[in-house]
Specification:
Helices cover 54% and strands 10% of the residues. It is α/β, with parallel strands linked by helices. The chain folds into 3 domains: 179 residues, NAD(P)-binding Rossmann-like Domain (Rossmann fold); 239 residues, N-(1-d-carboxylethyl)-l-norvaline Dehydrogenase, domain 2 (Orthogonal Bundle); 31 residues, Up-down Bundle (Single alpha-helices involved in coiled-coils or other helix-helix interfaces), CATH 1.20.5. 45% of the residues are buried.
Amino acid sequence: MKNKVQWGMIGMGVMGTSLSRNFAQKGIPLALYNRFEKGKEEGVAELKKASYPELKSAQAFENLAAFIAALAPPRKLFMMLPSGKPTTVFLKKLVPLLSEGDLIIDGGNAHFEATNKNARWLKKGGFLFLGIGVSGGEEGALKGPSLMVGGDPKAYALVKKDLHLIAAKNKNQKACCAYFGPGGAGHYVKMIHNGIEYAEMQLLAEVSALGRVFLSHTRLQKALKEWNATESKSYLLEITAALFSYSEENRPFIDLIKDQASNKGTGAWATAAATALAYPNTLMASALHARFISAFKTDRETYAHTFGDYAQSLDLSLSELKKSYDLSRWINHHQGFELLSAANKTYNWTIELNEVATVWAEGCIIKSTLLEQCIKHFEKNRSLLLSESFYELLKSGKAAWKKTLQQAITSEIAVPCMQAAWTTFSALKTKESSANLIQAQRDFFGAHGFERIGQSEEELQHGPWAQ
């Protein structure tokens, strides 16, 4: 047996392989494990070891007991497995082979409640546990991911140095890795990241839907590339511009892809999590439902034939479209960060918003100049909407924002996230809303009562209709 190491990577899929290579490139010795399934997964860890020079010194296994035996206590096990049942089943096989004090890390896209449950279960067995949200995809995992950590603070202290070594670094060379609280706090932050990501992707899809009406494919691609050289810069904008550059037989390749968007559930989790906290994450929800609607391809074709498709002209400029996009993004990020603040109150976490912005500023899918600005804003303000940057952007872009939405409605082009952003902003700045009528209605049909202006909030009132 070779010298024992402490780190073991479990699951040699795309992310597990890239993370293993990242560890190895940083000089951290590790063992690799992938399950054996005859005819499906055989010798996977050995194959990965042979494929990448940096993994040459790693030990490779497909026998779980042998893999555990090759690790020196306290073992540090980084799982990159599909979330849900696959992770649960594997943990039940793994735990009997471990020793008290060993550390298990779940780096999959787990639901934060499942992470809470596993944290309680493993703590009873004497094991250390972390649930880490890992963002950045294959490239991020290899070159430096964004790491959102939750779980036992003692466990984090044990691996903090190595995690900071493999994590992405922001412009100030600070590691994009932070501890956010016990149990599922890290996976909660990752879930909100993915919710913001859903809306960012949908906003770019809406920019495309509007832009292709009055711009050529080539001009739209050029415009997006130009935007990415401004404060609108983001990873998603960068790759969207790149996607528009591909063609096949003189046709934009994007037009060869069926317009039905898939989802893996994290957008639904974020929407449900906001509902549980009575927080309005309208952009995340709109982006999620836009994907759902896209799945009804046959119905959409029928309705387009019956009612007519969208118009083929717009009275809109690129500058107006960009300002609408930028303002909508501010509302999206505002909602994401406010949802984290709401979670702090409910779950007794201490998630620092500027720390979240720091972790998201590099290495992850939503990395952007806006998030770099957020780091500074949260040092002064709790709300992004109270920042000077948003105020200045609103002052120069509000008219364009309204015009874009007016043009979209007139041309019957669906822009659910842009509309949700405007509606949310309008509602938030409405001093006296129409919710008093809602309260009157509830009292009329259900005697639910209401708070009367100028009277104690402790005692609910009833209207004259109740007499």
